[in-house]
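Work Package 3 (structural annotation) set out to generate three-dimensional models for the target panel prioritized at the project kickoff. During this period the team completed the workflow that converts sequence records into discrete structure tokens, so that structures can be stored uniformly alongside our sequence database. As a representative example, we reproduce one entry of 442 residues exactly as it appears in the project archive.
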Amino acid sequence: MFNNLSEKLDKALHTLKGHGKITEVNVAETLKEVRRALLDADVNFKIAKDFTKKVQQKALGQDVLTTLNPGQLMVKLVKDELTELMGGDTVGINLGGSLSVILMSGLQGSGKTTFSGKLASYLKTKKSKEVLLVGCDVYRPAAINQLQVVGEQIGVEVYAEVENKNPVEISLNAIKHAKANGKNVVIIDTAGRLAVDEEMMNEISNIHKAVNPQETLFVVDAMTGQDAVNTAKAFNNILNFDGVVLTKLDGDTRGGAALSIKSVVNKPIKFIGTGEKMDAIDVFHPDRMADRILGMGDVISLVERAQEQYDEDEARKLQKKIAKDQFGFDDFLSQIQQIKKMGSMKDLVGMIPGAGKALKDVDIDDNAFIGIEAIIQSMTPLERSTPTTINASRKKRIAKGSGTSVQEINQLMKQFNQMSKMMKMMQGGGGKKMMQMMQGMK
């Protein structure tokens, strides 16, 4: 996420970090590099220029040159300005009344249909809403089928009228259906085009007037940079939408859209899409995104994701097992499954301060756990519950069954034993011993 921008900003600010002598001249030079990094990320020239001008004015106004850690203060000023540039405050979705209508808009290929499903899943699982998805793309034959597949996947009803080619009628009929069937949120997936055109704008404007949505969201592909901002402006002139959704932030995103769009249309970014799975949706937090762009990680979001997967009953059972030395491979596998539910490994690593930079050239594979899962699933119930029973002949059988080697089995056994000891120490409050052990782990 924004790897190139992060790297260039880090290089630009590197000379100002620490306790070295700093002057107005090298502050200006550094901010010139910051501006270049923003332009390379496809940020609008005027926005980039205003950004660095504000940072420079704040730096000189706060006597940054005479502080104990001038470099650190400069990084903070850049972070604060990035946060403001992306909206400042977190803005959630607006849901009110007995029935909320959400209208999705955007160009074809922006990920609008997929995100409609993600939003439906988010509202269903995290807000306990009864959601109805509505297929109003009457031009692209596969669009309604795609929405139906998504709806089936997340367990949300999809309303569609295959023979009807009037999206306004479909929308109004869907709202009647929602009211009659106890739904409290309707998400209307509209047609996209390859480019902004009068026909498209008239159609979505008519839908907007007819359904009077509580929330109109503009979905934009984060990889399209400055073009996305121009498209957002055209849509906003017609719809006066309420917020922006940035999709495909897990790809090779330059960052221009995220950094420019708020300044151009003066509408908040409300959600981001961070992967292909239906749960790869996050509320957009400008301050956290600024931290990530500057390589500071996002510990708060990481903890929140972990808490979402945290089951108190399971945790209590696990504590009892650890206390009795009964922690087995089934429990180990359960922990792996919870980690996988938190999102892509690359995204999770990016939330750890410093890890994104340290591992920027490392290919972090989301399938990294497949080999471990195959090994554990090739064990008998006795072997999983009582790992001490796994001898040399059992290792050969497990390796054959999982398509791995005895060496890989030994490595997993070593990692498992180390993890078991650490968890035991945590139970007993042996924090110091645990730290010493972690330092010795290879």
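Residues 100-294 form a domain with the Rossmann fold fold (CATH 3.40.50.300).
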